Amino acid sequence: MLYRSGFLVLALGATRVLGALFQGPTEEVLKGSYDVIVVGGGAGGGAMASRLSEDPDIRVLLIEAGSSDITNLNSTVPGLANNLVMSAFDWNFTTTPQAGYNGRSIDYPRGFVLGGSTAINQMLFCRGTVDDYDRWARVTGDEGWSWKSLAPFIFAVDHMTPPVDHHNTTGEFNPVLHKNGPVSISVDSLILDTNTRVLETTQQLPDLFPFNLDYNSGTSVGVAWKQNAILNGHRVTSATSYLAQAMNRKNLDVVVNTRVTKVFPVGTEDGKPVFRGVEFAQTADGPRHTLKATQEVILSAGSLKTPHILMLSGIGDSAHLSSFGIKTIVDLPGVGQNLHDHAFLGNSWTVNSTNTLDDLQRNATAAAEALALWKANATGPLSVAAGSSQFGFVRIPNATAFFQQFGVEDPSAGPSSGHIEHIPTNSYVSTTVPIPAEGHFFAIITAVISPTARGNVTLRSSDPFDAPLINPALLGNDVDLAIMREGVKAARAFVKAPAWSGYIISEFGEFGNATTEDALNEYIRNNSATVDHPVGSVAMGKDESAPLTPDLKVRGTVGLRVVDASAFPFIPSGHTQGPTYILAERAAHLVRADLKK
């Protein structure tokens, strides 16, 4: 049954705010008049709806495919994030067989709830680097995407809050770099006994693993305290931050449990189709409804669903569309191309300690005690995201020469960006081999943070309720495999520091047998997965081949814009929720300026 929930209550600490929420397309919504319709309630869409509705003269509708259950326990408790994969809050996508993974298909989590992937990710907050954004500026020909020009939007996103244990955080971040944005972030409580060893390693091996006071300064290389989208031990999402600030505004409506099936033209302007129409439905066999924005439709459905919606709407490669009986309205071969992501690998060692997080994964009593502690005061091991309090970015030494052997230029954005990410973790980590019944572990997650391979998103059918075909081309060439190999070697070097003497026992499982380059390659291919950072599938650029113009408009159309990570021309050398918020901050500025013309 469709109904209007008269008020949406979003709880964030002691804050309660009220606003209109619809559990489906009611008559009130269908008869409404909206200047802007935003599709998708994740980082991009939540920020856009919030910032646009700050102007009381702009009437905004946000349509989210998933539910409004933003306070479900698995999402709210940082340490339960892994329970969200392949759940009711996940689109439950899988990839095509990945050649770089010896033909394995892998789960590809994407948030299916208000808040999008900010509601199911591991909460790590990164902005990206000076070189990341300066490269965006070069490839788009728009200096507005440079770090310097974006600074007001970068600092508009987050603010630092005390960790839940309220320890003295001096020396764990630079407070000057964090202003008063809506997204609350914090460093972790002092729970993990590996923290001291990680920090000692930066002193003992400073040339390889220097300490970085604040990786969100624009230079990420080095080992730093993680900054997480967590407030008072609770996850922070675009719904509990940006939207929570906006839901008391009369000019914002939010509809959930409603999937946009396509956008459609409502006329032409200067010979271009005006895509201000949106079609949506709640079920595959249910009624289709339509609405028309008076000004703009903004697709913020993410790097997988945004190109999917565009192709279903007749915007994409004409040959591909025609093979599914879809009439081409705008021939844009770049739609769905350029998909790339950060490949992930968990590397585990057995350790001489019982003070790890492993028992939370295999001991029901320990897990129940940890949850009871979190419910009591939001403290304890479940208040820590991803089982880690520090992480780092590593550059490959002599990078120019290293990449020349493959006949390619250094794929990183520049010296402020890493090639590899390391996440030291106080537990066993693997996406392919279950945790052993006994033993205690330390792991270093390695990730290819500057990949070169490119994949795509394509249609499986013309049914909008069919998932698209997703090929992120993870470790899709010898270059990316070599970067991951260097990441594993660097992880092995990390635990050779004196700080780990007497603690590390041995490498575990197939990792321990990967002693030759061939064996290491097989270990990597057999065990890698994804950091869940798909980007670039509807990239902006200055060339006509780019699906988006530098101001995020879909090329060859009027009234249609994309504001999510699919617009990134290159993946940032860090986690992607922060850059998506930053993109949306500038996008809202661009849209509001256009609406005033």
Give a description of the structure.
The protein has 597 residues and is α+β, with helices and mostly antiparallel strands. The chain is built from 16 helices and 31 strands. Strands 1, 4, 5, 6, 14, 15, 18, 19 and 31 form a 9-stranded mixed beta sheet that branches. Strands 11, 23, 24, 25, 26, 29 and 30 form a 7-stranded antiparallel beta sheet that branches. A 3-stranded antiparallel beta sheet has the order 22-27-28. Helix 2 (43-52) links the parallel strand 5 (34-39) and strand 6 (60-63). Helix 2 runs parallel beside helix 16 (577-595). The chain is globular and about 70 Å long. The relative contact order is 0.18. Mean pLDDT is 95; it is low at 1-18.
Strand content: 15-25%
Per DSSP, the total helix count is 16
In whole angstroms, how far apart are the ends? Answer: 41 Å
Please tell me what the overall shape is.
globular
Topology:
Layout: E1 4-5, E2 10-12, E3 15-17, E4 20-22, H1 27-30, E5 34-39, H2 43-52, E6 60-63, H3 73-76, E7 93-94, E8 107-108, H4 130-140, H5 147-154, E9 158-160, E10 183-185, H6 195-204, E11 222-225, E12 230-231, E13 234-235, H7 242-246, E14 252-255, E15 259-264, E16 268-269, E17 272-273, E18 277-281, E19 289-299, H8 302-312, E20 315-316, H9 318-322, E21 330-331, E22 337-339, E23 343-351, H10 359-362, H11 364-377, E24 390-394, H12 399-404, E25 420-425, E26 441-448, E27 455-458, E28 469-471, H13 478-494, E29 504-507, H14 510-513, H15 517-527, E30 529-530, E31 560-562, H16 577-595
Parallel strand pairs: 4-14, 5-6, 5-19, 6-14, 9-10, 19-31, 20-21
Antiparallel strand pairs: 1-4, 2-3, 7-8, 11-24, 12-13, 15-18, 16-17, 18-19, 22-27, 23-26, 23-29, 23-30, 24-25, 25-26, 27-28
Cofactor: FAD
Protein name: Alcohol oxidase
Pfam family, one: GMC_oxred_C
